[in-house]
Amino acid sequence: MLDTIDVAALGPRRVGRLAAFDGQMLEVTGFVQPIGSTARVIDAHGQPTIAEVVGFRGDRAMLMGFEGDRAHLNGARVEPDGFGGSVAVGDGLLGRVIDALGNPLDGRGPINASARWPLAGRPGNPLHRTRVTRPFDLGVRAVNALLTAGLGQRIALIAGSGVGKSVLLGQMIAGAEADVTVIGLVGERSREVTDFVETKLAGARRDKSIVVAVPADHPPVLRLRAAMRATAIAEYYRAQGLKVLLLIDSLTRVAHAQREIGLSLGEPPTMKGYPPSALAMVPRLVERAGADVRTGGAITAVYTVLADGDDLDDPIVDTARAIVDGHIVLARSLAEQGVYPAIDIGRSLSRVMADVADEAHLAAARGFRRLWSVFEENRDLIMMGAYKAGADAAIDEAIARRQDLLAFVGQGQKERVDLAAARERLIKEFSR
């Protein structure tokens, strides 16, 4: 056995020493490894814990641990653990729930996935991203009819807390015509992860779905890795020529994770405390989705964005809205009226709808939007009773048809409305 080992070809193994620890960031001396590589840090009990190199400060490597509650010791041994820049992919992941490191969480045994894919994706040519010209059925009447999605589109689902984002995601999973669904549950409550898997992925949908889950109490480096792993898995299936639906819930929690890392590295805070790296991370992640002209595969992605305090001018909301191909805004006022999904049609937009819908469909959608916007613009006058019927024909029509508008937007949680049915009803009720 020893004869097969070429000792002369083996170089020295560099081992670092822990020099400082502030509760989140570990500073290591004598550890020359690239950013993204992983290391084993030996704690006070002699047990290894995994950490990732996230930056440098002078000649010291800055590491962030995957477990935040270990008893670290000054001068502890830090050993290189390889480069964590690729993830295991393959059909063995279908129907499984995994964590940010690819470990199974569902108690169904080991995962057989031998192929590898870069965690940060492969560098791409922008000309390999084909135009969005084919509609993508999401099974939600208001989305299919008024915000028609396209194959390969990136959509931001913007809402405050408790307005129905998760329910709408479940409707999309149930109604979407996708070969594979990849779901990244990042920074949510542990209870929500269990609820999502048991209710939104029940039955046959589970067999073609992959869930990457990292709850809110995990270190920020794992939350960031979860979103990147989910996107890498989706890229692998797109390379196989499949139609992939990628759901990341939520993009805001991913940005919060990058904010924690950036501030720990000493980056200056900018708007609302976000360092430049947190805002730059959003387009890097979102741009990995889309349609591939070479394979014919496509990633249609939906990113939920939490509007803190219902503030639609939040930096992450604004950054996401600027980079995606359309956004769906959920309104708390509609949810309080019992209208679900609580989609604010006036503030929502699909930038590809003109390329995937016919003229009759577009004309009916314009008619619907006109009635919706006229009512919203004059809501205060109408609610106060200051508007006198007959003063304006457009306002009279908007008031008379308000319940028709809300009935069209509303949809039962277990109801599925395909694209053809949504288009037909829209044209029948709102064409002029």
TrEMBL record:
Belongs to the ATPase alpha/beta chains family. PANTHER family: ATP SYNTHASE, FLAGELLUM-SPECIFIC ATP SYNTHASE. The lineage of its organism: Bacteria, Pseudomonadati, Pseudomonadota, Alphaproteobacteria, Sphingomonadales. One of its GO terms (molecular function) is proton-transporting ATP synthase activity, rotational mechanism. InterPro entries: AAA+_ATPase (IPR003593), ATPase_a/bsu_AS (IPR020003), ATPase_alpha/beta_chains (IPR050053), ATPase_F1/V1/A1_a/bsu_nucl-bd (IPR000194), ATPase_T3SS_FliI/YscN (IPR005714), P-loop_NTPase (IPR027417), T3SS_ATPase_C (IPR040627). It is an enzyme of class 7 (translocase). CDD domains: ATPase_flagellum-secretory_path_III (cd01136). It holds the Pfam family ATP-synt_ab. GO terms for cellular component: cytoplasm; type III protein secretion system complex. Keywords: ATP synthesis, ATP-binding, Bacterial flagellum biogenesis, Bacterial flagellum protein export, Cytoplasm, Hydrogen ion transport, Ion transport, Nucleotide-binding, Protein transport, Translocase, Transport. It is found in: Cytoplasm. GO terms for biological process: bacterial-type flagellum organization; protein secretion by the type III secretion system. Its main location: cytoplasm. Residues 151-334 form the AAA+ ATPase domain. The keyword Protein transport applies. Its EC number is 7.1.2.2. This is Flagellum-specific ATP synthase. Gene3D superfamilies: 3.40.50.12240. The keyword Protein transport applies. It catalyses: ATP + H2O + cellular proteinSide 1 = ADP + phosphate + cellular proteinSide 2. NCBIfam families: fliI_yscN. PROSITE patterns: ATPASE_ALPHA_BETA.
